[in-house]
């Protein structure tokens, strides 16, 4: 991607802001649109972007060669429907949305013929919300999934992969939209469901006085943006329900072995778990600027969608354009 590529980011939350930091650091011309003026001011003051606005600026949109959307799925769909006529001819559109499936096909069907949408999902993030927590280094060593369809050109797929390389993702893989959602139902959404359930199944007061790192590690992602994640769960409910059923079956096996006093069965399950975790922990590259290793079944530190923290950032996520 040439350095004179004009990039527009729509939505400056945690991920959109981290994209802005990373692309600007690599020498690209980055502008942005966000619904929150304080977010835009912060991005300009911290030299994350060159121009920013809270309006749907036709000129800013029309100048962009590449438009990156970091919005909730339903807002992304609505935004394209209302404002796609402002894109320049030949503009490339991509996103960071955590669920693809029908969304990708819907947007490709409604998009102008002289523009192209190639979906992507950065598997990176943290449990906090908003541009104030944005950090381009969350992408270093993480996974990046390109989600093409048969409507995408080889050039668009290559350009999307290059975005992952520029931002220093370690692994860049390709899945079709429904393969992506099946995988995300397991590695991201199910894990959030488990973390939520752990935090809500016991009402012991002063829990922090009794827990060790295991509980803290397992529940880090339980501090969650209920608006966004409820939408993602429902958009991907079939895949998520399937994964929940498989998990419940496995937990039921363990429950049955405990009830029966089946020590050897429990030990065998532990051995299989340990072996699989060792395989998962295999050494991996940390910078796709040096290596580009393809895989299709690994996960990043966390889903590449915004999560929340209370007070200031709950109000000022800057992703609801």
TrEMBL record:
Keywords: Oxidoreductase
Keyword Oxidoreductase: yes
Family matches, as InterPro entries: 6-PGluconate_DH-like_C_sf (IPR008927), NAD(P)-bd_dom_sf (IPR036291), PDH_C (IPR046825), PDH_N (IPR046826), Preph/Arog_dehydrog (IPR050812), Prephen_DH (IPR003099)
Keyword RNA-binding applies: no
GO BP of this protein: tyrosine biosynthetic process
Regions of compositional bias (Basic and acidic residues) in chain numbering: 278-290, 309-321
Domain Prephenate/arogenate dehydrogenase, residue spans: 5-288
Pfam assignment, any one: PDH_C
Gene3D superfamilies: 6-phosphogluconate dehydrogenase C-terminal like domain (1.10.3660.10), NAD(P)-binding Rossmann-like Domain (3.40.50.720)
Family membership: Belongs to the prephenate/arogenate dehydrogenase family.
Name the record gives this protein: Prephenate dehydrogenase
Organism: Candidatus Fimisoma avicola
